Amino acid sequence: MEILTAAETSYDRLSTLASNIDPGQLDAPTSLPGWDVRTLLDHTLGFITAMTSCANGAPMAEQTTTGIVQSDPVAAVKRTVFDSLTTWRRPAALDATTATPLGPMTGAQALALVVMETTIHSTDLARATGQDETIDPGVATLVLGTLRAMPLDAIRAAGQFGPEIPVPADATPAQQALALTGRRP
């Protein structure tokens, strides 16, 4: 799957999930310690916003933006996704060097991080709000490849992923990706 198609697909999933959130669920807990649904969405949209800024030539921010969701997750997702796709669809954006939390990389590699983050946290969101957890198989394969290329031990040591969860040899790419990030497949 091409990276822009994967981004569009992962953003469509996030948009669908956000549109099905009951306003009372914004304060509901998630599986991430200390994070409610609003915090999870803010983190995800903050990462997308930060990477969009980097694709526009800004250095990687030390802190991601918060307070994006407020009381309207649908509008927040729509705005963030529009800005992101507008940026990444520019000619040469996928080839340009882009700052990331893992250091400089091509725009395509940076966008793969965004797809990974969006996909994994969309599953967290689906679980917290009782929605469909299905990950597109093409996106799951891309996310799994992205995760396998990351310094997972260092990321786990920093507390950003939990310990890897064992999965059977015939686990799907989605199950493997979730397990690599310490999530139950």
Short précis:
The protein has 185 residues and is mainly α. The protein contains seven helices and two strands, in the order H-H-H-E-E-H-H-H-H.
Sequence-ordered SSE layout with sheet pairings:
Layout: H1 3-19, H2 37-55, H3 73-88, E1 97-98, E2 105-106, H4 107-129, H5 137-148, H6 152-157, H7 173-180
Antiparallel strand pairs: 1-2
Work out the strand percent: under 5%
Helix content: 40-55%
Enumerate how many helices there are, as a single number.
7
Q: Rg, please?
A: 15 Å
When the domains are counted, the total is 1
Question: How many β-strand runs?
Answer: 2
Tell me the overall shape: globular
**CATH class designation:** Mainly Alpha
CATH architecture, please?
Answer: Up-down Bundle
Broad structural category: mainly alpha
CATH T-level topology: Four Helix Bundle (Hemerythrin (Met), subunit A)
Provide mean pLDDT, rounded.
96
Largest sheet: 2 strands, antiparallel
Our measurement of the CA-to-CA distance between the termini, rounded to an integer number of angstroms, reads: 22 Å
Describe what you observe in this structure.
With 185 residues, this protein is mainly α. It has one domain: Four Helix Bundle (Hemerythrin (Met), subunit A) (Up-down Bundle), CATH 1.20.120. It is 55% helix and 2% strand. The chain has helices spanning 3-19, 37-55, 73-88, 107-129, 137-148, 152-157, 173-180, and strands spanning 97-98, 105-106. The chain has a two-stranded antiparallel ribbon with strand order 1-2. The radius of gyration is 15 Å and the shape is globular. The chain starts with a helix and ends in a 5-residue tail after the last helix.
